[in-house]
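Researcher: I'm preparing a figure for a lab meeting and need a structural model of a single chain. I don't have an experimental structure, so a prediction will have to do for now. The sequence is pasted below. Please return the structure as tokens so I can convert it later.
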Amino acid sequence: MKLKYFIQLFLCFTIAIIIPFSIIHLFNITDIALQLVLYLTLGYLLLVLPLTIIKLNQNKEI
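Model: Understood. Here is the structure written out token by token.
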């Protein structure tokens, strides 16, 4: 794995954790079920979309 790709993966993963966590604390959401839904939905979207874009860009470079 190239260093550039590893750094991109790490940043996407970190952002996918931090943003849902921040939103839940910003809106003071205390319902566990709603927290779970937000973590799963936002985490999935924030992780999959950038990784798909990165992968498509890598395929164009080849």
